[in-house]
Amino acid sequence: MRFRDAPARDDPASRPQITVGLLTDVRGFPLQVHALTGNTAETKTMIPVIKAFIAAYRLPGVTVVADAGMMSEANCKDLEDAGLTFIVGARIPDVPYQVAQWRRDHPDQPIPDKQVFVQPTVMGPKADQRKRTIFYQYRTDRAKRTMKGIDTQIGKAEQAVAGKTAVKRNRFVQLTGAKKAVNRDLETKTRALAGLKGYVTNLPEPTPAFVMGAYHQLWQVREELPHVQDRPASPADLPPQTRLHRSPSDHRDGRPRGEPLARARDRLVDQKARPDPTALPQHRSPDRQPHPARRHAPRRRSQGRHRRNQVSRRWTLI
Fold first, then answer.
1. d(Cα 100, Cα 97) in Å, to the nearest integer?
2. Are 53 and 249 in contact (CB under 8 A)?
3. DSSP of 151-220
């Protein structure tokens, strides 16, 4: 969690920027909080906060679960060097070997739903190689959603190549100089990866159920945390507050004046529009007397005093 306060123009040093590291349980109850410098990235604040949490509660060890956008290979190495284990969402740039081998052994057959492929691998350069285990899971509903998105993007790319629409940010539009074409190779690879989700871990002898179950708890925590900061509900014995629209109804949705909205009860009550008031006369009434405080015209400052004020402000600025 990052907290930043915009610096003031006149005194930027009095408003420093800080990073607040907050640890909560599954229900969102705060367990520990840390204040760090504001120019520190979130990936750099994770390890010291976790180490302090382990030391405070005397934990034998923890497993860090994060998505692919939060952790890079360098961050995973730092966690491993600190004696921590992790479960991270894996990026899939190409079709995994196990998936390609299964499709070669089972031609013209779809991958079964919830099929899991296990791939032990070694990551990193030769001087510093790390053992990892990657799990690939195939889901039929995920593949359907991905295929639908690919069909939509391919349709937009074909429209852009044909000149019917403007070329926007579309990864399937390949530009070679002034020529436009649909990248069919990328389309084939993207369709082959549809439905696959990767999980990488450094746990010794991991199981697919534990790894994927821990990763799915990450999304449950994200769904629970926004509800922690909700304001408390009003007492049940209080009636619902009535909302009134004071602008004419025909200015909002084209209905005749005075016609109520056809909505649920106690949801929105339309205020009946008043008839147009009679226009006020443009001439001044002869019986109207000015206010006693405004019988005399306001006095204007002398030119010399105005000049002195200008000179004093100029010298003050200097």
1. 5
2. no
3. HHHHHHHHHHHTTSS---S-TTEEEETTEEEE-HHHHHHHHHTTTEEEEEE--SS--HHHHHHHHHHHHH
213, 197 in Cβ contact below 8 A? no
Cα 116 to Cα 183: distance, rounded to the nearest angstrom: 30
Q: Are strands 2-3 and 269-270 parallel, antiparallel or unpaired?
A: unpaired
Cα–Cα distance, 113 to 194 (Å, whole number)? 12
CA distance 96 to 117: 9
**3-state secondary structure (DSSP) of residue 130:** strand
Would you write out the chain's pLDDT as a tens digit for each of its 318 residues? Answer: 444 444 555 555 566 778 787 887 777 788 888 888 877 776 678 888 888 888 888 888 788 888 887 777 888 888 888 888 999 998 899 999 999 999 999 998 999 999 999 999 998 888 888 999 999 999 999 999 999 999 999 999 999 999 888 877 888 999 888 889 999 999 999 999 999 999 999 999 999 999 999 888 876 655 555 544 444 555 555 555 555 555 555 554 555 555 555 554 444 444 555 566 666 655 566 666 766 666 555 565 555 444 443 333 322 222
- pTM beyond 0.70: the answer is no
